[in-house]
Amino acid sequence: MTAHLRCGAYCLSLERPLVMGIVNVTPDSFSDGGRFLDAARAVAHARRLVEDGADMLDIGGESSRPGAQPVGLDEELRRVLPVIEALAGLGVPLSIDTVKPEVMCRAVGAGASIINDIAALRAPDALEAAAGTQAAVCLMHMQGEPGTMQTDPRYGDVVAEVRGFLAGRVAAARAAGIAAERIVVDPGFGFGKRIEHNLALLRHLDHFAGLGACVLAGLSRKSMLGQITGKQVSLRDTASVVAALLAAQNGAKILRVHDVAATRDALAVWQAAAQLD
Ligand code: YH5
Questions:
Q1: Per residue of the chain (277 residues), what is the pLDDT tens digit?
Q2: CATH number for the domain including 47?
């Protein structure tokens, strides 16, 4: 495993876990403020996450929640590009959460330096598009498609199957010319997995550290935490912080979270107690 993640002009130390703050740029269903206000809201939220200690931001214009509607190319570009342009000078790497090669290229042109692809660069031309940039790439495992993935997920050995898939995608990325120090892998919590699958992946996250890439974990507010606590999505922040800390203790180097401040506190307590250095 490399001790650094290279993303465009940034080089991030992986000695301690990094916190990736989630920035959704989707229309506000409670108001009709229009595009400008949606972008302004996302930018204000992103600035707050950086003040709270985010090491990087993940900007997404298409919801990948189970059952969410796909978004067209032009609409996705209209949502994310103004936000990336506004945040490019903030001083933290920006990640673009997309499966579309055109969005990857345009987002990097606007200032993004990480490509976060829930389809692990499997779309036609996506590998080439990512390889043509200096951005880091996050390769995530998903069984099925967002619309139907939670219908009946099945595995023999979930850890071995997800590991095998990610090993194949790392090899494909390396063959396309993406250096190991630019590659992140992610088991894809909640993407075509039942609770027992998610828990096995969390328990055995260390199995993914041997793939020659650093590990990202995205557990924040997900339905497995709702199943465990019985709480609705707006009441899952404590469970999310604990899950992020467990992931970090099992080797995750990037934690994709909504509540950056609380996650930072949890990591600080762990590090103080463990005297990690
Ligand atoms: C991820 O794990 N997840 S979008 C459902 C929720 C709450 C949150 C029902 N993009 C990941 O965050 N990218 C998403 O409540 C991601 N890893 C990476 N790399 C889904 C999400 C969510 C879904």
A1: 459 999 999 999 999 999 999 999 988 666 666 788 889 999 999 999 999 999 999 999 998 777 778 899 999 999 999 999 999 999 999 999 999 999 999 999 999 999 999 999 999 999 999 999 999 999 999 999 998 898 999 999 999 999 999 999 999 999 999 999 999 999 999 999 999 999 999 999 999 999 999 999 999 999 999 999 999 999 999 999 999 999 999 999 999 999 999 999 999 999 999 985 5
A2: 3.20.20.20
Return the SS3 of 264: helix
Ligand 1 contacts CB of residue 207 (under 6 A) = no
Count of structural domains within the chain: 1
Is the CB of 188 inside a 6 Å radius of any atom of ligand 1?
yes
Chain-centroid distance of CA 217 in Å reads: 7
Q: Is 2 part of any domain?
A: no
Ligand 1 contact via 141 beta carbon (within 6 Å)? no
Task: Give a yes or no: residue 6 inside a domain.
Answer: no
What is the residue range of 196's domain?
Answer: 18-271
Catalytically active residues are 222, 256
What is the pTM for the complete model shown?
0.97
Identify the helix (H) or strand (E) that includes residue 4: strand 4-7
